[in-house]
Amino acid sequence: MEKYNALKLDSQLCFPLYAASREVIKSYRPFLDEIGLTYTQYITMMVIWEKQTINAKELGDRLFLDSGTLTPVLKSLEAKGYISRSRCKEDERQLNVQLTKAGEKLQAEAALIPYRVFECSKVEPADAEALNSLLRKLLLSIHTK
Questions:
Q1: Which domains does the chain carry?
Q2: Cβ(99)–Cβ(49) under 8 Å?
Q3: Nearest Cα to Cα of residue 88 among 100, 96, 98, 80
Protein backbone atom coordinates (compact mmCIF):
# COMPACT_ATOMS: atom_id res chain seq x y z
CA MET A 1 0.00 0.00 0.00
CA GLU A 2 1.45 3.38 -1.05
CA LYS A 3 0.32 4.94 2.20
CA TYR A 4 3.03 2.98 4.04
CA ASN A 5 5.92 3.34 1.57
CA ALA A 6 7.63 5.77 3.94
CA LEU A 7 7.74 2.97 6.52
CA LYS A 8 9.77 0.63 4.32
CA LEU A 9 13.28 0.07 5.61
CA ASP A 10 14.79 0.99 2.24
CA SER A 11 13.00 4.37 2.38
CA GLN A 12 14.69 5.37 5.62
CA LEU A 13 17.79 7.56 5.85
CA CYS A 14 18.31 6.49 9.46
CA PHE A 15 18.83 2.81 8.73
CA PRO A 16 21.80 2.95 6.33
CA LEU A 17 23.39 5.59 8.58
CA TYR A 18 22.91 3.35 11.63
CA ALA A 19 24.11 0.18 9.91
CA ALA A 20 27.07 1.89 8.21
CA SER A 21 28.10 3.51 11.48
CA ARG A 22 28.08 0.17 13.28
CA GLU A 23 30.09 -1.49 10.50
CA VAL A 24 32.64 1.31 10.28
CA ILE A 25 33.14 1.33 14.04
CA LYS A 26 33.46 -2.46 13.96
CA SER A 27 36.23 -2.11 11.35
CA TYR A 28 38.20 0.04 13.82
CA ARG A 29 38.00 -2.54 16.60
CA PRO A 30 41.01 -4.75 15.74
CA PHE A 31 43.27 -1.73 15.31
CA LEU A 32 42.03 -0.05 18.49
CA ASP A 33 42.42 -3.32 20.41
CA GLU A 34 46.12 -3.19 19.52
CA ILE A 35 46.47 0.10 21.42
CA GLY A 36 43.92 -0.67 24.15
CA LEU A 37 41.25 1.91 23.31
CA THR A 38 37.53 1.76 22.68
CA TYR A 39 36.12 3.74 19.76
CA THR A 40 34.76 6.44 22.08
CA GLN A 41 38.14 6.73 23.82
CA TYR A 42 39.80 6.95 20.40
CA ILE A 43 37.65 9.82 19.11
CA THR A 44 38.11 11.59 22.44
CA MET A 45 41.88 11.24 22.14
CA MET A 46 41.77 12.55 18.56
CA VAL A 47 40.34 15.85 19.80
CA ILE A 48 42.81 15.98 22.70
CA TRP A 49 45.72 15.24 20.35
CA GLU A 50 44.58 18.14 18.21
CA LYS A 51 44.05 20.62 21.06
CA GLN A 52 46.59 19.39 23.70
CA THR A 53 44.49 21.10 26.41
CA ILE A 54 40.73 21.51 26.21
CA ASN A 55 37.79 22.33 28.45
CA ALA A 56 35.62 19.24 29.08
CA LYS A 57 32.45 21.03 27.96
CA GLU A 58 34.10 22.06 24.68
CA LEU A 59 35.32 18.49 24.25
CA GLY A 60 31.81 17.12 24.78
CA ASP A 61 30.37 19.64 22.32
CA ARG A 62 32.97 18.71 19.71
CA LEU A 63 32.17 15.00 20.08
CA PHE A 64 28.38 15.47 20.48
CA LEU A 65 28.63 13.65 23.85
CA ASP A 66 26.91 14.64 27.08
CA SER A 67 28.83 14.78 30.34
CA GLY A 68 27.26 11.51 31.53
CA THR A 69 28.88 9.73 28.60
CA LEU A 70 32.11 11.73 28.50
CA THR A 71 33.00 11.60 32.22
CA PRO A 72 33.62 7.82 32.39
CA VAL A 73 35.63 8.00 29.16
CA LEU A 74 37.84 10.73 30.63
CA LYS A 75 38.25 8.84 33.91
CA SER A 76 39.33 5.75 32.00
CA LEU A 77 41.81 7.68 29.84
CA GLU A 78 43.21 9.34 32.96
CA ALA A 79 43.58 5.95 34.68
CA LYS A 80 45.56 4.76 31.65
CA GLY A 81 47.82 7.82 32.00
CA TYR A 82 46.95 9.40 28.64
CA ILE A 83 45.34 12.56 30.01
CA SER A 84 45.18 14.57 33.19
CA ARG A 85 42.10 16.39 34.44
CA SER A 86 42.14 19.52 36.58
CA ARG A 87 39.71 22.18 37.67
CA CYS A 88 40.04 25.62 36.10
CA LYS A 89 41.58 28.06 38.59
CA GLU A 90 39.32 30.92 37.47
CA ASP A 91 36.12 28.84 37.62
CA GLU A 92 36.25 25.56 39.53
CA ARG A 93 33.04 24.38 37.85
CA GLN A 94 35.03 23.97 34.65
CA LEU A 95 37.19 20.93 34.05
CA ASN A 96 40.27 21.08 31.84
CA VAL A 97 41.69 18.03 30.09
CA GLN A 98 45.37 17.92 29.15
CA LEU A 99 47.42 15.48 27.11
CA THR A 100 50.24 13.70 28.98
CA LYS A 101 53.55 12.36 27.67
CA ALA A 102 52.01 8.85 27.57
CA GLY A 103 49.13 10.31 25.55
CA GLU A 104 51.61 11.81 23.10
CA LYS A 105 53.30 8.42 22.75
CA LEU A 106 49.90 6.82 22.12
CA GLN A 107 49.31 9.28 19.27
CA ALA A 108 52.37 7.93 17.49
CA GLU A 109 51.02 4.38 17.92
CA ALA A 110 47.60 5.42 16.57
CA ALA A 111 48.84 7.45 13.61
CA LEU A 112 48.32 4.71 11.02
CA ILE A 113 44.87 3.59 12.17
CA PRO A 114 42.86 5.88 9.83
CA TYR A 115 44.88 4.67 6.85
CA ARG A 116 44.52 1.01 7.84
CA VAL A 117 40.75 1.36 8.25
CA PHE A 118 40.41 3.23 4.95
CA GLU A 119 42.31 0.48 3.13
CA CYS A 120 39.75 -2.02 4.42
CA SER A 121 36.79 0.06 3.25
CA LYS A 122 37.29 -0.21 -0.52
CA VAL A 123 35.73 3.26 -0.89
CA GLU A 124 37.25 5.63 -3.42
CA PRO A 125 38.90 8.68 -1.80
CA ALA A 126 36.62 11.12 -3.67
CA ASP A 127 33.52 9.21 -2.52
CA ALA A 128 34.77 9.17 1.07
CA GLU A 129 35.39 12.92 0.95
CA ALA A 130 31.91 13.58 -0.51
CA LEU A 131 30.27 11.31 2.07
CA ASN A 132 32.15 13.02 4.90
CA SER A 133 30.97 16.41 3.68
CA LEU A 134 27.33 15.30 3.37
CA LEU A 135 27.32 13.63 6.79
CA ARG A 136 28.79 16.74 8.44
CA LYS A 137 26.08 18.87 6.81
CA LEU A 138 23.41 16.47 8.03
CA LEU A 139 24.84 16.32 11.54
CA LEU A 140 25.07 20.10 11.87
CA SER A 141 21.60 20.66 10.43
CA ILE A 142 20.05 18.16 12.86
CA HIS A 143 22.14 19.23 15.85
CA THR A 144 21.23 22.93 15.58
CA LYS A 145 17.49 22.23 15.79
A1: 19-121 (1.10.10.10)
A2: yes
A3: 96
